[in-house]
Specification:
With 120 residues, the chain is an alpha/beta fold. It is 24% helix and 22% strand. It has a single domain, classed as Dinitrogenase iron-molybdenum cofactor biosynthesis domain (Nucleotidyltransferase, domain 5, 2-Layer Sandwich), CATH 3.30.420. It has helices at residues 50-60, 73-81, 94-102; strands at 2-7, 25-30, 36-40, 65-68, 85-88, 107-108.
Amino acid sequence: MKIAISATGQNKESLLDRRFGRCDYFLIYDTESGEFKTIGNAGVSSGGGAGIAAASQVIEENVSVIITGKLGPNSFELIEKAGIKAYSCDAFPVFRAIEMFQNNGLTEINAEGSAHHGMK
């Protein structure tokens, strides 16, 4: 299974970024291999539609789970339609957020958060 985590940096010690559409990076963790892949967030520099760009990007990575702070209306809708589960986490290091998920310590995101309309 692949897990996408919104992050402030490029490694597993980086803090989780509670912003999904405007995070700097996504760390993609493969639970089978234990490997991390880092991708820059295409939505971070968007004037608008950051959530759509970010959601499309992680959907293309074939992830099963997203760990972030919250999802705006557009990203929530796309992720829900793609059948991806999303979980909320505070700004812990990425490796800790994954441990919390694996130990059923995160809350599933079942509703959209507010939109930010291009604000960072």
